[in-house]
């Protein structure tokens, strides 16, 4: 049974992030100058260590930044649909967000149980989303909720409709949350560590489900994860973040096969993709800088084996390397132009 109903046609990129700055308490810049686009049906993986700014970037696009954090620079734009104009997300009021969040932008997070009301059945929660977001009458919302539960791979969806969150497994809860997230046929789905707590079999099934939704709905997917294997399996492009900046991006297969930034190289050594016979774990020496720390040059310089005096002399630009690739590093810079 398909989730497909009617997909809005988006003019231009589904999501455009241009020069995003996010400050945390005290005015420190935790995200600085982040820019990227996401097209219809495209999957982009956002990777990096904890504290690199991945989740803050995604939550900025959802308008749900934690207390003490705010967007202080740049633009986040949702593509135009039909004859309408693009929507500038960073300028929306709370009331205006209600017409976007859950309708045009869906979200799935780690630990789905914490995002569901334990006192209501999962079917009632999905039906309520359909009634509010799509204006369906009660009976139609019930019917559609059961259809959606079946479409995301829940067995006996009519029974699941009447179950409470505590009666379902973690994988089933994640499917429920995905059904809620896509119930209004959004153009964009943001999945923030959505498969982290799941075993490998359930994780593979969730990733397969997301791939099917992309194909059926033209859904754009922004996937935040620590797992490079997940990105390699499911994403068209990869964005690597370090200390609040994008340090590399490009087509996933090309970046993972031949990274241009030392931090990406280090992540690949730690991940050891495809290397099953290893007995020792690699680590990245040192620690990332504190959020908002003011550094004169490359933020990875004190952990990099290739650092030169030029790396710490001043800010390092994000260089265009051709073929859709960029890197914030002076080593490959001679072959590219600064953005």
Polypeptide structure, described:
- The protein has 10 helices and 13 strands.
- The chain has helices at residues 54-62, 94-97, 122-134, 138-151, 157-160, 170-182, 200-217, 228-234, 252-257, 262-271, and strands at 10-24, 28-38, 43-47, 70-81, 87-88, 105-109, 188-192, 220-224, 237-242, 245-251, 319-322, 325-327, 337-338.
- Strand 11 and strand 12 form a beta hairpin.
- It is globular.
- The chain starts with 9 loop residues before the first strand and ends with a strand.
- Mean pLDDT is 86; it is low at 1-7.
Output mean pLDDT.
86
Count the helices. How many? 10
Helix content: 25-40%
Annotation, overall tally of beta strands: 13
Q: Write down the Rg.
A: 21 Å
Contiguous uncertain segments of 5+ residues:
1-7
User: What is the spatial order of strands in the main beta sheet?
Assistant: 6-7-8-3-9-10-12-11-13
Q: How would you characterize the largest beta sheet?
A: 9 strands, mixed
Using the alpha-carbon principal axes, give the shape: globular
Report strand %: 15-25%
- H/E series, N to C? EEEHEEHEHHHHEHEHEEHHEEE
- In whole angstroms, how far apart are the ends? 45 Å
Overall SS class: alpha/beta
Looking at this protein, list some descriptive labels.
24% strand; four-stranded antiparallel sheet; nine-stranded mixed sheet; 10 helices
Q: What is the element layout, followed by pairings?
A:
Blueprint: E1 10-24, E2 28-38, E3 43-47, H1 54-62, E4 70-81, E5 87-88, H2 94-97, E6 105-109, H3 122-134, H4 138-151, H5 157-160, H6 170-182, E7 188-192, H7 200-217, E8 220-224, H8 228-234, E9 237-242, E10 245-251, H9 252-257, H10 262-271, E11 319-322, E12 325-327, E13 337-338
Helix pairs in contact: 3-4, 4-6
């Amino acid at each position: 049974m398909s989730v497909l109903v009617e997909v809005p046609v988006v003019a231009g990129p589904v999501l455009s992030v241009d020069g995003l700055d996010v400050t945390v308490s005290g005015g420190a810049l935790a995200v600085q100058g982040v820019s990227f686009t996401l097209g219809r049906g495209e999957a982009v993986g956002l990777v990096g260590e904890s504290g690199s700014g991945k989740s803050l970037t995604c939550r900025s696009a959802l308008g749900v930044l934690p207390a003490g954090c705010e967007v202080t620079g740049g633009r986040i734009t949702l593509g135009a649909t039909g004859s309408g104009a693009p929507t500038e997300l960073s300028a929306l009021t709370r009331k205006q967000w209600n017409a976007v969040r859950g309708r045009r932008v869906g979200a799935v997070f780690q630990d789905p149980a914490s995002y569901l009301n334990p006192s209501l059945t999962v079917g009632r929660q999905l039906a309520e989303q359909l009634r509010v977001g799509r204006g369906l009458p009660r009976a139609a919302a019930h019917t559609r909720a059961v259809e959606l539960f079946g479409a995301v791979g829940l067995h006996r969806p009519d029974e699941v409709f009447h179950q409470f969150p505590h009666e379902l497994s973690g994988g089933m809860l994640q499917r429920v949350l995905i059904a809620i997230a896509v119930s209004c046929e959004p153009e964009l789905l943001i999945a923030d560590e959505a498969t982290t707590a799941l075993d490998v079999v359930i994780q593979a099934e969730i990733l397969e489900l997301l791939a099917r939704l992309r194909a059926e709905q033209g859904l754009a997917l922004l996937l935040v994860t620590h797992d490079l294997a997940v990105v390699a399996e499911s994403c068209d492009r990869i964005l690597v973040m370090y200390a609040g900046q994008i340090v590399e991006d490009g087509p996933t297969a090309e970046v993972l096969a031949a990274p241009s930034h030392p931090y990406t190289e280090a992540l690949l050594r730690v991940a050891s993709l495809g290397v099953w016979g290893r007995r020792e774990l690699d680590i990245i020496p040192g620690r990332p800088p504190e959020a908002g720390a003011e550094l004169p040059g490359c933020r990875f310089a004190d952990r990099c084996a290739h650092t030169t005096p030029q790396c710490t002399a001043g800010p390092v630009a994000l260089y265009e390397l051709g073929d859709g690739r960029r890197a914030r590093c002076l080593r490959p810079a001679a072959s590219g132009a600064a953005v």
